[in-house]
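does this look right to u?? 4-fluoro-L-phenylalanine version
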Amino acid sequence: MSNTNNNIHGQWSTRLAFILAVSGSAVGLGNIWKFPYITGMNGGGAFVLVYLACILMIGLPILMSEVLLGRMGQKNPIETMRTLGIQYAGSGLWSLVGILGVLTGVLILSYYSVVAGWAMNYVYLGLSGTLDNVDAANATLIFTGVVSSPTNLIFWHSLFMISTAVVVGKGVVHGIERSIKILMPLLFLLLLVLLGFSIVNGDAVSAFYFLFKFNFDLLTAEAILIALGHAFFTLSLGMGAVMAYGAYLPRGHSISRLAISIVFVDTIVALIAGMVIFSVVFANDLSIGQGPGLVFQTLPIAFSSLPLTSLASVLFFVLLVAAAWTSSISLIEPAVAWLVEAFSFSRQKATYFIAFIIWMLGLLSVFSFNSLSEFIFWKGTWFDNFDFLTANLLLPFGGLLISIFAGWKLSFNISSSEINTTKLYWFRLWRFLSRYIAPVGIMIIFLDGLGVI
Ligand code: PFF
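got this back:
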């Protein structure tokens, strides 16, 4: 491990370690919890198509840009953007991209941790036998029971925040590397088993049609904005998480290949999760548009017909917690790294300080499902608003600025030598997407989705 610049993360030991760490950040609640439910709420096929287009034409080039900028700057995202801004764009104000990213990460983790807490709670329910042989009515009751008690939610939210803080406080490279090498293949395997199961026992044909039949009538401007936002959310883009990880990638690796592997893993996990969940939904006549409770209410039903029901549920929810955990680490990392570098906090102190602020903010999301559930403004409850603001506005906005910087402020020679593709046309394609397609696409979707045009 080299400590040439600072001691925040160390340096990834291999190319694979980097791919796993960024995939660990990317694959999370976004793929397994959020993608299916927002797809359900936004009509299916056409939404998925727009999401995939956003991933390829906007997400992929911005992922490459974040890795590129992180590796060039070698520091936390605020410092990286300040230094590169001064050097290539004549202004340290570019550090605002990093500041916005730090704030966005804090806001996202505040509600992300509450949902990860649900998953932890479900592990416990599985162990205690509550998830044995559940039917649709039971599944709804169990979920309502989980979210309607503030003390219950606060307990699990606190536990999740503490487990995140413990790892981040200790430094992330070894902890993440080691656990992800085991957890990611396990998650993949389990999803494949579930996919096989849903093909045999669920209504996979209807699920397939729902996900891939493009009915454009159902697509609204806001749905397109949500698809764009989700492309950012699922790839962990627009807030400096990937930039922070890119800072510890040794030079010489081809960024395009790394980015393509990460995007592939992330997308395939989401699509498989969608197939599994909608197969169960259609086979059991559940509602597709039921919102955030979807995965929690469908999977226990799917498992109930299996032998060893509880074991399957426990395993699944343990992996969901693990996926959430490797993502939450990357959500808090930019803020922690910045406090350590800019204010000389010890790593532990920085972590617990930020974690406490996030925990407090998270209470608003906790109460959104019970005492404050009637308190509705803008897009819904506090929880809905945090989600909408961060995923659909702040992340794409951060991504817009990153794309403009990488595409327009870095010269052809500098970015081509940094990206280091084997074929020049890949580089040209990245540059074209970064300069034109990504910024213009984001702006049009923004203005349209917010009703300005
Ligand atoms: N990509 C994560 C998921 O899909 O669950 C969420 C996330 C992690 C978003 C890190 C943003 C981020 F910086």
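Residues 12 and 18 are 6 Å apart (CA to CA). idk if thats expected tbh
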